[in-house]
């Protein structure tokens, strides 16, 4: 099973029909590293922001799950509130990853996480609590983050 | 242009239309067979009525199929492929102008009823006539093909078809084979490499039906098994397991059990994976199962460390998992919960659950203490708690040490609260002596405290009423004799690995009270005789007894002041000298000898007082109970397995040379487990 072949196919698939709100760029010399920009979904606190995501496909992809991180900081219960931007997404966990899962599905799941956070399985417990108990505060903070970090393109 | 050509032309046309299905007869160029598959658009329920019903195969025929008599028909299968029709056609001379084609229809097995075949065959001539006696073969075959969908009118309104039960296996086989062929011919998009693949290089997962190419499956499973990640040996489709679980819950609510998600070893072999890999998979899977079960007990042998046999996780044999018995699990859970509990005394597992047998080396051991199996009645301390017993346990152990005597049969510690020294075990009802833990003959338990039938007396002679007020702190008594016999390695405050814990309330409260009325034997005697035997109660003597009893598997207790020779005629073993020269194999043999001598002296004085008659007596303490117990101890100590023999005999201070020699000889033989031989040698035996 050659990883390159499958990655090539998936790349073609994603380019032909990109996941909603996403733009994928990559370096021809390293197909295992994808850069994705995601437009904050409308009608969410993240609307208006542009989020950068990196996705690294391990050498034995698709037997092992891709590694996905937000490079743009983000106020979210399931994304670490730091520069690493680790994402807690069930299909990316080793025990849940199945080789027949597709990158496109992963990216759609990442976007869905912005629409519908999952505070019951949080990486940032404080933010999760806030999301559950003080939604107004959460919305305010999240928007603040968007203004501070996710409007970079606009500034430049 | 003649018929010859007409036949030839039609034959070549037909051959072009049915290139794969048509075979020309080798002998007759105008005879050929067309194989017509009976593949149904939608599956039909094929019923195989019981043999008695098949004897009346009428339901199938005629244009009005009478509904099959349901109720009795239990055996039904949904099939979409039935064994194909063989249409043998020969074009006789004169065809098509003067003669109709000759058609024979058959099936293998002959599942199609005779009348249907006749009707189908007859159709050929009819069609030929209808067409104005023209070339009719294609039309005819096409006509037959058209009627396949309702299986030539055999399928009734309820979409069922009845077939004789004798054809069942062949028909089912055909269906499987047809499906397999269809699978091999079709194309699938492998979800892993994303390439379209022919069915012949694909594998359909047996449990869920997902299809992947064999190459991808092999790569993934081999990789996972090599890495030891057996948990991921599942269907590779995302959410496959959870989807199936949901489906299963929808169809059979109430059943909580998850559907099996792992791949069976036989399926892995089908894919195929190497036997070695599958073997490793089976082994790892079993190991993972054992490790995830906190109740698993492991073999204490350091070179083995296999798991104990368990009904829940049977050791796999060959390349297949053993079927686990689910119903056992609850029971084992409760039993094993104790092993994990630390510190607190919770309910201990029933003793029958203590026996564990290693599934690898077959070693039988106690799952609580980790020692080799010691029988179910022995109390032992959980292995992991040996070094950390609580104060409370320590206190009760000390108490047990001081104030109980073990039953010679089951080792249950018994405490006497009052009464005579004839005890009856609260657990196994064995009669025994509280002083020396000797087994007593239920027929006449008091004999032990009196003169033996042989005329001899033993160390308990006249001591039936000793400790009458009971044994325990509350009465200011501490009799350790019986306990010392049982636990030779223990002195108060010294806790080795052979400690035994007894739950509170085990002490026997009433075993002797019931006996109170029975006994009065020798009471006046005992009173008359100077009550000589306060030593064991007084403290120093018990210590000495401990020392004696610690001698190991071979214990020779010699005492008394009797003149040698007297008891000799009376009992089977002649008098014995202090066993100083005995070449005891156990460590500390020398010390034993010294102890023995010491004790002999110590007892000598008392023996005089106790047995003024001076009779030389040998108490044979070799009953089964004691013997078994001794064996147990010997095993536990791991010292040796020699046959333990215990003599408790008053002994003359002056032993003659001959007796000394005899004793040496006897000890030597006993060490070799041959002491019985000596009986033959000394001719003056009783019976």
From TrEMBL, chain A:
Domain UBC core: 2-151
Entry keyword set: ATP-binding, Nucleotide-binding, Transferase, Ubl conjugation pathway
Root EC class: transferase
Pfam families xref list: UQ_con (PF00179)
Matches recorded under SMART domains: UBCc
EC identifiers of the protein: 2.3.2.23
GO MF term list: ATP binding; ubiquitin conjugating enzyme activity
Name the record gives this protein: E2 ubiquitin-conjugating enzyme
Species annotation: Neoarthrinium moseri
TrEMBL record, chain B:
SMART domains according to UniProt: IBR (SM00647), RWD (SM00591)
EC annotation from Swiss-Prot or TrEMBL: 2.3.2.31
Reaction it catalyzes: [E2 ubiquitin-conjugating enzyme]-S-ubiquitinyl-L-cysteine + [acceptor protein]-L-lysine = [E2 ubiquitin-conjugating enzyme]-L-cysteine + [acceptor protein]-N(6)-ubiquitinyl-L-lysine
Source organism per UniProt: Neoarthrinium moseri
Biased composition (Low complexity): 607-633
Biased composition (Basic and acidic residues): 634-650
Annotated protein name in UniProt: RBR-type E3 ubiquitin transferase
Keywords: Metal-binding, Repeat, Transferase, Ubl conjugation pathway, Zinc, Zinc-finger
InterPro entries (alphabetical): E3_UB_ligase_RBR, IBR_dom, Rcat_RBR_RNF14, RWD_dom, TRIAD_supradom, UBQ-conjugating_enzyme/RWD, Znf_RING, Znf_RING/FYVE/PHD
Region (Disordered): 315-345, 504-545, 565-656
Domain RWD: residue ranges: 9-151
GO molecular function ontology, one term from the record: ubiquitin protein ligase activity
Protein's pathway: Protein modification; protein ubiquitination
Signal peptide: none
Top-rank EC class of the record's enzyme: transferase
Biased composition (Acidic residues): 323-333, 507-519
Boundaries of every RING-type domain copy: 186-464, 190-235
Annotated family: Belongs to the RBR family. RNF14 subfamily.
UniProt KW Acetylation keyword: no
SUPFAM superfamilies (alphabetical): RING/U-box, UBC-like
């Amino acid at each position: 099973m050659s990883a390159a072949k499958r990655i090539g196919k998936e790349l073609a698939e994603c380019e032909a029909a990109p996941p909603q709100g996403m733009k994928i760029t990559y370096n021809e010399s390293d197909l295992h590293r994808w850069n994705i920009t995601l437009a904050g979904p409308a009608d969410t606190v993240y609307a208006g922001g542009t989020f950068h995501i990196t996705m690294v496909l391990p050498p034995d992809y698709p037997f092992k799950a891709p590694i996905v991180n937000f490079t743009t900081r983000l106020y979210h219960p399931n994304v670490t509130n730091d520069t690493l931007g680790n994402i807690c997404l069930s299909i990316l966990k080793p025990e849940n990853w199945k080789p027949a899962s597709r990158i496109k599905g992963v990216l759609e799941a990442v976007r869905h996480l912005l629409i519908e956070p999952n505070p019951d399985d949080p990486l940032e417990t404080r933010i999760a609590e806030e999301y559950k108990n003080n939604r107004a505060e959460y919305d305010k903070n999240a928007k603040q983050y968007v203004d501070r970090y996710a409007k970079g393109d606009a500034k430049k | 242009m003649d018929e010859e050509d007409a036949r030839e032309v039609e034959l070549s046309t037909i051959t072009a239309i049915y290139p794969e299905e048509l075979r020309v007869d080798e002998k007759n160029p105008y005879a050929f067979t067309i194989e017509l598959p009976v593949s149904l658009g939608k599956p039909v329920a094929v019923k195989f009525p019981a043999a008695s019903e098949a004897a009346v195969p009428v339901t199938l025929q005629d244009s009005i199929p009478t509904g099959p008599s349901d109720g009795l028909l239990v055996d039904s299968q949904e099939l979409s492929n039935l064994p194909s029709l063989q249409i043998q056609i020969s074009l006789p001379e004169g065809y098509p102008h003067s003669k109709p084609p000759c058609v024979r229809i058959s099936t293998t097995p002959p599942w199609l009823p005779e009348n249907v075949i006749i009707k189908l065959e007859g159709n050929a001539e009819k069609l030929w006539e209808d067409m104005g006696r023209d070339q009719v073969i294609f039309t005819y075959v096409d006509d037959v093909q058209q009627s396949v969908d309702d299986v030539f009118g055999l399928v009734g309104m309820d979409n069922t078809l009845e077939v004789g039960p004798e054809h069942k296996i062949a028909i089912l086989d055909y269906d499987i084979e047809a499906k397999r062929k269809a699978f091999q011919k079709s194309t699938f998009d492998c979800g892993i490499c994303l390439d379209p693949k022919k069915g012949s290089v694909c594998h359909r997962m047996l449990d869920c039906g997902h299809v992947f190419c064999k190459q991808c499956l092999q790569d993934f499973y081999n990789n996972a098994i090599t890495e030891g990640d057996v948990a991921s040996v599942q269907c590779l489709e995302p959410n496959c397991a959870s989807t199936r679980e949901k489906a299963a819950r929808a169809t059979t609510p109430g059943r909580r059990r998850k559907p099996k998600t792992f791949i069976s070893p036989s399926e892995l072999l089908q894919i195929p994976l190497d036997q070695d890999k599958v073997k490793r998979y089976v082994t790892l899977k079993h190991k993972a199962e054992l490790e995830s079960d906190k109740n698993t007990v492991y073999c204490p042998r350091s070179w083995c460390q296999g798991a104990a046999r368990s009904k829940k996780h049977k050791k796999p044999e060959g390349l297949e998992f053993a079927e686990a018995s689910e119903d056992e699990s609850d029971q084992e859970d409760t039993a094993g919960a104790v092993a994990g509990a630390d510190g607190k005394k919770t309910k201990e597992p029933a003793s029958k659950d203590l026996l564990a047998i290693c599934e690898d080396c077959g070693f039988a051991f106690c799952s609580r203490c980790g020692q080799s199996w010691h029988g179910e009645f022995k109390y032992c301390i959980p292995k992991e708690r040996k070094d950390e017993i609580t104060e409370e346990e320590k206190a009760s152990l000390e108490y047990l040490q001081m104030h109980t005597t073990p039953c010679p049969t089951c080792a249950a510690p018994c405490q006497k609260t009052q009464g005579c020294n004839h005890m009856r075990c609260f657990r196994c009802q064995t009669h025994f002596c509280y002083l020396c833990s000797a087994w007593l003959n239920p027929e006449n338990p008091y004999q032990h405290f009196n003169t033996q039938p042989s005329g001899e007396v033993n160390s308990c002679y006249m001591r039936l009423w000793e400790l009458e007020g009971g044994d325990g702190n509350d009465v200011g008594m501490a009799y350790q004799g019986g306990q010392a016999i049982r636990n030779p390695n223990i002195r108060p405050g010294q806790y080795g690995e052979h400690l035994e814990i007894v739950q509170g309330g085990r002490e026997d409260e009433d075993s002797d009270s019931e006996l109170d009325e029975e006994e009065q034997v020798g009471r006046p005697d005992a009173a008359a005789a100077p009550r000589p035997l306060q030593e064991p109660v007084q403290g120093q003597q018990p210590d000495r007894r401990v020392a004696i009893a610690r001698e190991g598997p071979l214990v020779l207790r010699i005492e008394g002041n009797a003149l040698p020779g007297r008891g000799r005629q009376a009992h089977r073993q002649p008098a014995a000298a202090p066993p100083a020269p005995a070449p005891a194999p156990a460590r500390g043999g020398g010390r034993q000898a010294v102890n023995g001598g010491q004790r002999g002296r110590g007892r000598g004085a008392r023996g005089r007082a106790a047995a003024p008659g001076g009779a030389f007596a040998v108490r044979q303490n070799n009953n089964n109970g004691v013997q078994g117990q001794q064996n147990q101890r010997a095993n536990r100590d791991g010292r040796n397995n020699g046959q333990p023999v215990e003599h408790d005999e008053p002994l003359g201070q002056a032993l003659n040379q001959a007796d000394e020699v005899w004793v040496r000889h006897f000890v030597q033989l006993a060490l070799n487990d041959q002491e019985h031989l000596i009986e033959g040698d000394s001719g003056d035996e009783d019976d």
